[in-house]
Amino acid sequence: MQGFSSSFLIFFYQVALGGLFALAGTPFHEIERAFYKSTAAVLYVIALLGLWGKSPIYWHSLSQRLSWGIGLEVCFHVAFVIFFSSYMLSLWTENQAFRARSFASAVLAGSVGLILSAHNFYNAALISIETVVYPTTFFISSLLLGSVTVGMLIGHWYLIDTGQSLDPFIRTYRFFVMALIAQCASLALSPLILYLFGTPQTAIAMQRLWQHHATLLITRAMIGQVAPLILSWMIWRTLLIPHTMAATGLFYIALLGVFVGEILGRQILALTSLPF
């Protein structure tokens, strides 16, 4: 079982990686590059904080035993930050090929690193339902965290560029809603799938979750899924007016709900090793 530190620090990794996916869904040529510079800078700082926080844990794990799994996770986590650094540099140049390659490399390295990180939270054979469910839930959480963060940041950009088309904002909003719906479906189906088809250890963990931490799970669902769903409808209504300032304010609240819900999910992960 991983401690709370390991469970929580992956939160930073997921925000940074999911934010890059959300940026990929925006029309680059329709928004000033300054938006990408500022937004990528926020995500980059979060990625650096995640690597800095994980460094003592990585060092301790590698000093205790040399594991291919941990070694690969460290390599891909470092590669993610390096490629992200290259993307940050590319935003200050006119080399579009370099920018595209560094962005794609950061997304690819980050995704592989996230899959390897998910593997450290369960003990099951490579061919098992856990090998599918854990990385999937981690990845969906990453998309949700990144999309709500970028949605809030792009809303701020509309306060600066008031005459801009709403299309980029709406595309980011839709990305956020799809990620939120996907996580709601995952939270509804994953417990049943793991209980029915997972290892005996996973089934025991599921029983422990329901017996001792059911309130935590329900609170996580209400704050992290139900409340953002209601807010997503309110954001859409304000975009129809359109009123970007109000939509940005609602995105702030949605971000707070998603972040608190995910932090509660990391507490569940630390207590039970279940990816909820």
Number of strands: 0
Helical run tally: 9
Overall spatial form? globular
Backbone structural class: mainly alpha
Mean pLDDT value: 87
Uncertain runs are: none
Care to describe what's here?
By secondary structure, the protein is mainly alpha-helical. The chain has one domain (4-272). Helix content is 84%, strand content 0%. The protein is built from 9 helices and no strands. It has helices spanning 4-24, 33-64, 68-90, 96-119, 129-160, 167-197, 200-212, 214-240, 244-272. Helix 2 runs antiparallel to helix 3 (68-90), helix 3 (68-90) runs antiparallel to helix 4 and helix 5 runs antiparallel to helix 6. The longest helix has 32 residues, at 33-64. The protein is globular. The two termini are 15 Å apart. 42% of the residues are buried. The mean pLDDT is 87.
